[in-house]
Write the structure tokens for this entry.
Amino acid sequence: MNQVLKKQGNEKLLIIMMLTVALSSMSILLFNFVLPQISKEFQLTNSQVSWVTSSYTLLYGIGTAIYGKLADRYKLKNLLVFGLLLFSIASLLGFFSSSYWLLLVARCIQAAGAATIPATATLIPIRYFPLEKRGTAMGTVFIGTALGSALGPIVSSLVVSIVDWRWLFCIPLLLLLTLPLYFKYLGDEKGPNTSIDWLGGGLLALTTTQILLGVTNNVLWLIGGIIALVLFIYRISIAKSPFIQPQLFKNKVYISYLILAFFVTGIGYSLFFLTPLFLADVQNLPVNMIGLAMVPAAAVTALLNRQGGKISDSKGTSTLFFIASSLLIVCFFLLSTFINSNVVMIAIFLIIGNVGQSFMMIVMSKSISLTLPNEHSGIGMGLLMMQNFIAGSIAIGIYGKAVDMVGNSSWNPFNQLAIGATFSNVFFVLFALHAIILIVYTLSRRMH
């Protein structure tokens, strides 16, 4: 009887976590659509107002690794409650912000609190579900990401059409309703009572910050990032209780999956970054229609995510990888070939790609979790989340430069139209890259 009740409680916990992830994903996207209004109100340049989103993303990415490390030491319940309370307090501060600096402070504190969510979301399937159910659990949690992506543009446009943009800060306050439920369903498990190497954690944060700033702003930051990285490596080699155990980097299977995840995540960001651009430039869609054209992909992904998790549990992660990779290869080839086709066709292509990318994230998360011992699961998954943000930032920088290059001819032999040639070429390269990744993955699996 107790086992049945525990199983039911874990399923409820999964649903609550999914809804939390959805609200968190929405909070990342909500302000992207009101940057022009914020810029006009505070008389800011484009580079100044961009910090509303870039500062949030930067701290969010760093925070996932730090919370992951803390989860190996402290109760997951306490970390999540702390993060959600901090997120909510910052949202209130943002709602009452009357100056740009206060708005920026609110967004930074929001990110510092919200970063606990992805760290917790990857650990709950690991700690509360048996190995044979882990993929399904991860697929369920990732539904929240798809829901947030689908609802973010709609909610943002709806709110600002009725009230002031500051009301967007009120949406994360709904997370307060989940606190009693987390107290009820999250256990009191915690790791060994060891000290935290905050100097090592600070050096990791400094390394990540400077690398991201180097990619998005000035290459000189990369020099500082390399210096900080050297200091970080030295620190974890001499510290009594290092922030990251050096043995983790000696785990060849873990590192190989981390590298694979870096590339597939970077490629996957093209669907989120390039889609609004080519829908505006090639399809000539207005802003409100661009959001609607992207909604079906997110909605179908949310519906199919749990099925993807079940496939990884019943057939294995390699089977789901093949399905995900095949979907992405088809998506990028179709986008490259039919970039000028009607919006309905484009929406169908995006459904194929978004489902494939979500399945790929399930594969990466589950595969990496299987390589980690319990005592390293928090920091191991935290590093995965952090490197996803790094991969995304680097990829966006590359895509931004690529679309600025005017292309007059298509590299795709099946599409020789000049209209949209630049986007067609980018998608054709991504199609080829994913085909190579699938071949390498298949050969490596056969060798082992």
Q: What stands out?
A: The chain has a mean pLDDT of 85.
